[in-house]
Amino acid sequence: MANATRPGGGYRKGDGAQEENLFRRSDYFRSLDVGLDEIQEESCERSHCTSQCDLDSYFDSQKMYPMDEYGAIYTSAMAAYRDPMLNGTMLAPKYAVGMRKKIENIFAIAYHHKHDYLVLSALGCGAFRNPPA
């Protein structure tokens, strides 16, 4: 549930896929929509995970609210391939290997940060036209 080039996908124009719904129904958009920083009093921390599992900050920023007071939900989003090549109803081998690595990265990031629970969803089975199996 991630767009590789535009966080939130088409949530501003009303697109209705999973990522767009998460952005509209939660505070998720505040952490990834850079365009909102100009109108917010406080910006939030944005970072990405490198291939060595290090976090690199995109911006120097202030937290939006005190995490110790409100708690936090940590999100990790991984973009699926858009319109991948298929062999029948399965991903072509090149894409299957890459998709497996993406899924393994989600679990590796959670393990590295000692997360107890993961909420997972279909990966690219909607607008990006990946097969469900």
UniProtKB/TrEMBL annotation:
Transmembrane segments: none
Signal peptide: none
Coiled coil, from the record: none
Chain ranges of the Microbial-type PARG catalytic domain: 1-43
Protein's recorded name: Microbial-type PARG catalytic domain-containing protein
Gene source species: Didymodactylos carnosus
